[in-house]
Amino acid sequence: MTQTLHVQIKSADRSDLEDRLEAIDAGEDVEPSEPTLSIEDLETFGRVFCSTNLELLEAIVEHEPGSIRELARLVDRNPPEVLENLNELADYGLVELEEDGRAKRPVVWYDEIDADIPLRSGLGQERKANA
């Protein structure tokens, strides 16, 4: 079964999360929501989903490497550079680094990314109105 992560470019909106937590606390049944990552702007989106990071994500999903060193071999890069990219991906929740003895094993729980990229922004609308 395909697991999809939905990515959107907008400020993180936590109001829905607060409502869902209140409903859970009240004992209500809550439908699971689709996993969604909000990225604050297009520049950050471009940095997080650059070609080198996408190559890492693809290699993790396809080969399930047992360590960062093994992943670095798969993508023909130096382990410290791969670790730097993985740390950024982990900061956004795109990768988990699981302890496996002395090694850290990169894990991705999804196998597809669906990106919602708006071509109009509220800021752009205001600039047109003031022109």
Describe this structure in words.
With 131 residues, this protein is α/β, with parallel strands linked by helices. The protein has helices at residues 15-25, 42-48, 51-63, 68-75, 79-91, 122-130; strands spanning 4-9, 36-39, 96-100, 103-107, 112-116. It has a single domain, classed as Orthogonal Bundle (Arc Repressor Mutant, subunit A), CATH 1.10.10. The chain is 47% helix and 19% strand. The strands form 2 sheets. The chain has a 3-stranded parallel beta sheet with strand order 2-1-5. A two-stranded antiparallel sheet has the order 3-4. α4 crosses α5 (79-91). The longest helix has 13 residues, at 51-63. The radius of gyration is 18 Å and the shape is globular. Residues 123-131 have low confidence and may be disordered.
Termini Cα gap: 50 Å
The number of domains is 1
How much is the average pLDDT?
Answer: 83
Order of helices and strands: EHEHHHHEEEH
Q: What is the CATH class name?
A: Mainly Alpha
Radius of gyration: 18 Å
Second-tier CATH architecture: Orthogonal Bundle
Number of helices: 6
Oligomer designation: single chain
InterPro entries: ArsR-like_HTH, WH-like_DNA-bd_sf, WH_DNA-bd_sf
Organism: Halorubrum coriense DSM 10284
Protein name: HTH marR-type domain-containing protein
Pfam families: HVO_A0114
